[in-house]
Design goal:
8 helices, binds 6-phosphogluconic acid, 3-stranded antiparallel beta sheet, about 15% strand, Rossmann fold
């Protein structure tokens, strides 16, 4: 009898997982295809910000990594309601803000610094994570407080997919992608160095009004294949959590895979 119940349970679980994958996969997803430069991505971000004009504050999560940099270089030339925008990090490596590994350092050099210098945005609209070596838990709590003082969910999350399909610091089949904390989480054994990081949680990213994942460059082909496959789950390919949001989108230059 016990055997029959567990068989049934397994069957129902498998069916639910399959249905949720199909539902998520069939949700309308915008696809931005890149042929020459990343300006279509900057235009997508501009459109979404314009859709949210009614709001007093618009919260944008930015990723670390190289793919986002040319996009932000385009975006900073655009006329936007800059003073309403609040930027948080989708994830950060637990290093000082001027360390070469810091995601904030790269974003500051290529994006924030010139916006501040031109008077478009105040430093208070930029929300870097401050790592505290001796009390990392307090540092994480401070960042969650900082986020909650501005909003309860991201308006726009922009994420860069890694070669393995990770986004932010949520990695395939890793405790980080199973953690359903509401805001940010700490990651102490990330498979991608450096191992100690903080990350927006799966739950927080899934609550985004708009969510865009970048798959740029040949190195992201396998990740894009995994993302598009109806047979993979969010645990296999964390980038797929984008499909659980109200308005999912991807951008890629690997257009042949889409056919
Ligand atoms: O801190 C990190 O490592 C990142 O936030 C990570 O999630 C990154 O965004 C992707 O790995 C894409 O990186 P690239 O754009 O450099 O490929």
């Amino acid at each position: 009898m016990e055997h029959t119940i567990s068989e049934e349970t397994r069957f129902v679980n498998a069916l639910l997982l399959y249905l949720s994958t199909i539902i998520a996969y069939n949700k309308d997803m915008e696809t931005i295809t890149i042929t020459k430069n990343t300006s279509p991505i900057a235009s997508w971000i501009t459109d979404k910000i314009n859709n949210l004009q009614e709001k007093d504050k618009i919260t944008i999560l930015l990723p670390g990594g190289r793919s986002i940099i040319p996009v932000l270089k385009e975006l900073k030339k655009t006329a936007l309601p800059w003073k309403k925008l609040h930027f948080f990090l989708a994830d950060e490596r637990c290093v000082p803000q001027d360390h070469p590994d810091s995601n904030y350092k790269a974003l500051r050099e290529h994006f924030f610094l010139s916006l501040i210098e031109e008077g478009k945005i105040a430093q208070g609209n930029i929300h870097p994570y401050t790592h505290i070596q001796d009390t990392p838990h307090t540092a994480l709590e401070n960042y969650i407080k900082d986020f909650c003082a501005i909003c309860d969910k991201p308006d726009i999350s922009i994420l860069g997919a890694g070669e393995d399909g990770h986004i932010a610091s949520l990695f395939p089949h890793h405790p980080s992608i199973m953690d359903d904390s509401p805001y940010y989480i700490s990651v102490t054994d990330a498979p991608k160095p450096p191992p100690i990081r903080i990350s927006a949680s799966k739950t927080l990213l899934e609550s985004s009004t708009y969510c865009l994942v970048l798959f740029l460059g040949e190195a992201k082909r396998e990740a894009l294949r995994r993302f598009l496959s109806p047979d993979t789950t969010v645990r296999d390919c964390p980038a797929k959590l984008c499909l659980q949001t109200d308005n999912p989108a991807i951008a890629t230059d690997q257009t042949d895979i889409l056919q």
